[in-house]
Amino acid sequence: MIKSPKIVNPLSETIIITFCIFWWFIAKDIPDFILPEPLEVLIALFQLAVNLESFQHIAISMFRVTVALIFAAIVSITLAILSRTNYVFTIIIESNILIVLNSFPSIGWAILGVIWFSISDITVIFVEIMIIIPFCLINCIQGFRQVDKEIKEMGISFSRNRILTFFKIDLPLALPFIIAGIRISYGIAWKIAIVAELFGASSGLGWLLQQAQNNADSEKVLAICLLIVLLFSAIDFLLLKPIANKYSINIKES
């Protein structure tokens, strides 16, 4: 039986309140354009949430992150499957493609994206995909590598259909690793989205962040950053974490 996580944790609440008090104590004697007080940031956050134009930018960023995450997951799973087919694919994918993607500078993808696709949604999504693929791919490779050979041989003895064996044995056993990779990639995607939107978009939260910087609006900068934290936490808590718990428990029970 899955225990629902506690929404309120006394220790975490105490830490947050202590941090806010410390923040207020530091900010009360500093100009607002340098460090605004917590209440001012919360007001700016509320204004972002209720403003229709700002909500459209939030929806655009969410759409880009979601599309990039889906494509990155599909590409990673495909490459991980190919790496298991024969030794040549293993060398190409794990010793070449993965190393290049893992070490290629993020700023390089952002610049190339703007050069290749100009200022567009495709630019932002492309940059996000190229940067989060290695994080997802590593987990996918490890997931399929951890599949128990005895269980797989037993499955093959019941059915010679490779596709059926994959969906009934390989994929379910690798899912905890794949979902863990998706959770990691989701957080990184939000960080990359802001940078990509600063370079290659005229909309989204990154673009709003740039406008706030141009106006020296520290309240809005912090409000946008806090909003991203809340968006990430909400999706992870309500969707990704329950899925991860479900499949990890199913694997243990089996």
What does this structure look like?
- The protein has 254 residues and is mainly alpha-helical.
- The chain has one domain (60-253): MetI-like fold.
- It is 83% helix and 0% strand.
- It has 10 helices and no strands.
- It has helices at residues 10-27, 38-50, 52-83, 87-103, 106-117, 121-145, 149-158, 162-200, 205-214, 218-253.
- The protein is elongated and about 70 Å long.
- It starts with 9 loop residues before the first helix and ends with a helix.
Task: Catalogue the unreliable spans.
Answer: 1-5
The CATH superfamily is MetI-like
Give the strand content: under 5%
CATH class: Mainly Alpha
Which topology does CATH recognise? MetI-like fold
Shape: elongated
Q: What is the share of helical residues?
A: over 70%
What is the level-2 CATH architecture name? Orthogonal Bundle
Number of helical segments with 4 or more residues:
10
Number of domains: 1
| Helix and strand composition category | mainly alpha
What series of H and E elements makes up the topology?
Answer: HHHHHHHHHH
| Biggest β-sheet strands, sense, barrel | none
Radius of gyration: 22 Å
